[in-house]
Write a structure and sequence with these properties.
- The structure is a single chain.
- The chain has helices at residues 14-40, 44-54, 91-95, and strands spanning 2-3, 10-11, 65-70, 80-84, 105-110, 120-124, 139-143.
- With 150 residues, it is of the alpha+beta class.
- It is 29% helix and 21% strand.
- Strand 1 (2-3) and strand 2 form a beta hairpin.
- Strands 4-3-7-5-6 form a 5-stranded mixed beta sheet.
- The protein is built from 3 helices and 7 strands.
Length: 150
C-alpha cells in the first residue's frame, strides 16, 4: 500500500486487495459453518443441564435419571421433569404425561455417547407405542410436530 502523490488516495496493490477479499470470504464461511452447526440439533449435555436448572428440588439419584422436556415453541403448558428410570419406561409413558397425550408428538431422544445426534427422532401418533428402548440418563424432547424439525 502507499499514497498517491497527486491526490493523496491510498493505493492498494492488486494482491493486497485479493488477500483482503479472501480473508473476508473465509471469515463469512467460518461464521456460516459455526451457525449451521450450532442451529441443527440440541446437544445432550446442554439440554440435561437446562432441565436440571428447572428441576432444582428433584431427588432422583443421578444415575437413575431420565430428562424430559417439551420443545421450546410448543403450546403451553410446558413440561420439564427429571423422572426415575425403570425397566419398561416407554416413550408412550412420557408422552402421556404431557399435553400431547391424545395428539401426535415429535419425539427426539439423545444420549451421551452421541451428544449431537438423536438416537430416536420421529413423530409418534396418538396411541402409538414405539418400541425404542429408553435408558437411564436419556434426554427426551417432546414437541409439536408442526414446528420445524431439526
Amino acid at each position: 500500500m502507499g499514497l498517491c502523490t497527486h491526490c493523496g488516495l491510498i493505493l492498494v496493490r492488486p494482491h493486497d486487495h485479493a488477500l483482503g477479499k479472501m480473508k473476508r470470504l473465509f471469515t463469512v464461511l467460518l461464521l456460516a459453518w459455526c451457525a449451521a452447526a450450532h442451529a441443527t440439533e440440541p446437544d445432550y449435555k446442554g439440554s440435561c443441564v437446562w432441565v436440571i436448572e428447572h428441576c432444582t428440588t428433584n431427588q432422583v439419584p443421578k444415575d437413575e435419571r431420565v430428562f424430559v422436556a417439551t420443545t421450546p415453541g410448543s403450546a403451553l403448558p410446558s413440561y420439564i421433569a427429571i423422572l426415575r428410570y425403570h425397566d419398561g419406561l416407554s416413550i408412550r409413558n412420557l408422552i402421556d404425561q404431557t399435553r400431547f397425550s391424545s395428539t401426535n408428538a415429535a419425539v427426539s431422544v439423545y444420549r451421551s455417547g452421541r451428544p449431537f445426534k438423536a438416537r430416536f427422532h420421529q413423530v409418534v401418533k396418538a396411541g402409538e407405542l414405539p418400541t425404542f428402548k429408553l435408558k437411564p440418563l436419556d434426554m427426551i424432547w417432546i414437541g409439536d410436530p408442526k414446528l420445524p424439525q431439526t
